[in-house]
Amino acid sequence: MRNLFLISTLLLFCLSLQAQTPGRVTIRGSLIDSTGTILPGATVMLLTPADSSLESFGRSGEQGKFEFRNVRRATYLLKITYVGYLPYQEAVTPGPEAVTDLGSIKLKPIAKELFEVVIKTAKAPLSIRGDTVEYNASSFKVPPGSTVEDLLRKLPGMQIDQDGGIRAQGQEVRKVTVDGKNFFGSDPKMATKNLPAEAISKVQVFNDKSEQAKITGVDDGKNEKTLNLELKESHKKGGFGKVTAGGGPMSKVGGVNASPRAEARGNYNRFNQKEQFSVIGLGNNTNQTGLSWNDYQDFRGSQSFNFGDDGDFGFSNGGRFIIFTDDDNNSFSLPISNNRGRGFSSNAAGGANYNSTTKKTKASSSYYYNQIHQTLDARQTRENFLPGGASFGTEDKNARVTFNRNHRFNGRFEQTLDSLNTLLLIVNGRNNAGNETFSSAQDFFRAGSQTSRTEINNASDFSSFAFASSLIFRHRFKKKGRNFAASLGYNLNDTDGTGIQQSTSRFIGTSAGEVLPNQNQRTRTDSRQGQLKASLLYVEPVSKRIFWESFYNFSVRNDLVDRDVFDRRSEQMTRNDTLSRYYTNDYLYNRLGTGLRYSYKGLNVSAGMAGARFLLDGQFAPDQTATRFTKVNRTFSTVVPNIGLNIDLKNNRWMYSDYSVDVQMPSARDLQPVIDNSNPRFIRVGNPDLLPQLTHRINAGLGMFNAANFTNLWVNVNYGQHINQIVYNQTVDPITLVTTSTPGNLSGGNMFNTYVDFGFPLKKTKATMGVNSSLNFSRTPLLVNQVLNTTRSQGYRFGTSLNLTPVEFFTFYARANWGITDTRYSINTSQNQQIYNHTYNGDMNFRLPKALFLNANFNYQIFINRRFGFDQKLPILNLSAYKIFMKDNRAEVRLTAYDLFNRNQGINQQATQNFISTERVQTLARYFMLTFTYNMRGVKDQMRRNGGF
Predict the structure, then answer these.
(1) Distance CA 296, CA 283 (A)
(2) Do the bridges between strand 323-324 and strand 653-665 make them parallel or antiparallel, or are there none, so unpaired?
(3) In 485-567, where does DSSP find H-type helix?
(4) Which of 120, 335, 522, 679 is most enclosed, with most CB atoms within 10 A?
């Protein structure tokens, strides 16, 4: 690790020495037009004559002046572009003086008679028009076979983190389009990690308006940083894609030979002006559960989260809609990751995406299938804190084998009925199933001495179907700003599961009466949740600058749970009425809100208020045939205020702040009066009396991006105060140490987060650096044996990054993150502790002659908790060498060594509520792979006619 940072420091030192040599010069001048008018904000670039690569760049100031300091004393092409004027190009050779002043340079306006004239000039590497930055991809060289992600790393003002997350001009990029169209739901990493860099002609970065602003024509001050990839014409005329296959020898797991390693993946794309078609797939036993992208948020597409697409109309700057939590954490998302996951897994996945656009119709659809077979062997240590300074510890050695398969599909159809009316239909669905076996040996300790052991052997299987749909009608009146929208939606979630629960407990030094009974049970659970919802929205312009917005939300949800538990004694199966439960619940939700918005010249102010009312009508009994049910009837009303302020200071500078109240409903699982005893030492009981959680939230920030020197700054502050916070109170039996957890409502919790990111070029196009920092404070109340425990957590994180591309054949990226979490407990201050999590990462790529490349990636992780004597350091080194060959560099052969030091393992530290835990998971470590990749370009389809597929 030290060597990596010594190399980076040495390179920086060399760059600084180079900047101080007498072979440097300053080039300056000023811009006017033929009438003598000053031209501010023009894009000015210095290019090398040989290949028109970018040496330096900037923008003319308010007085039309520009200046390049400390550039090499060499001949350059000076390239100037300005909207409405002919591009200007001139060869510049500095003299012996320290400053070369070019004087006033005149640009000629584009006249009509010049439109037919072909002007041959060097292609500009980038152009800046207002808040839009456009990069010419061919001016930024990347190795053959590179992805769009590799190209983005080269672009000034762009930052790519270790997981592939994109930041442009200091802001997170949430949407990536290809030729202006969605690509697999517009997930940013999906496009950047799967499309080849050679297919891209231009990269455009701009602030896109929110869906609400597009629909209503009223600027709401909300912008979404968007990146558009413009394809080369050559890649619109045929298909293109990539296939990779490889294998490696058997690796050792715990000293025992395991299966040989193998993987295959591929993608194929065919685009034209009206249609996009893509297929992707993979198969491997190397723990890669994803298609080379991380945190793929939702396969149905990011549009589903834009204003109006979910039909939950309301405030646009927070507190917009009611939050119904997802119980099974499946939803319609893809649980896949670019990281090589924990444990050992075999994976297969594949999907297809199709988009079609005509003048009045936009249609998109996706299907995705994935399956995973995973084995996890874990060891977890945990210290639990009790009132009065007492505590007890557990050591858990467990093994888990799971198999899951998932089918997911989505469709989105938008029809423009006429110039004023639009109809939108969105359908999402999933069907998944799986099974799991779990075994565990839990040892319990007090004062360092073992008190008991519980052994668990469970098995389960499940199947699930979910469906979500929305039908949205939008009407735009002829009067500008007057709009109406209505939505109707239906959601369904149906899950069935069976299970076997077996456990035995043995206590040391206690009487027989204190021993927990052995458990041998069979369970069957049917759960169904249906929801019907509707919303209305009306926007009325009070004046040219003031708009009145009103909305109404309605929802009725029905939950039904039928859980049967049977005790098995010998060959007899006896129904357990204490653990069995039949439960029905109806949720009726109404919300009516209104507000005013002022919008003029970048200043956007909104203020509004809504009233919400929840009616809960539920009942439960041991069985649906019971003659007596316990009723659960609750009514909850609240007022939800909302205030927002957005200021566009122009030239990529902005400020924002807002105040809102978020309402989070209890999950169906928390509301169910069901006893979950799958772990007899940690029992979970639902609470039908739970109230919704309210969070008063204040959010503020500012940002700026200097297009002249590509310096960016992003600052965000967020504070939340929780009312009726949903927490999981615990009751611990003093003898058996059985913990019973029950959700409840407590007030007094809060959170405070702040984030700062600053990026700047050390040398334009050659070296950039970024620093960032975050502070996170939280206060969480919890009842432990009816005693209030307040956990205070303080997190401090600082990070830095360095991107070096000093020459075309060498790139180096370094990142470092230092994190400290300080956790303090009110009921047992002696257990206060600090957890240190530090990460250092370096990535180097070096091109040798004859299309041979070397790549090294080093990741060094440090985990420290001195309170419990935990100190773990994991150096992970990956090395690869690859050769590009065949016509047009279509093929690649690569030899890779993963985890050369054989140190990889899954480690997780957690300090929260009233416990601290550390988990180690045995994970796939050192192995070797030889892979072959073939890039498909310009594949013809003889059946393609009239621009179709």
Answers:
(1) 18
(2) parallel
(3) none
(4) 679
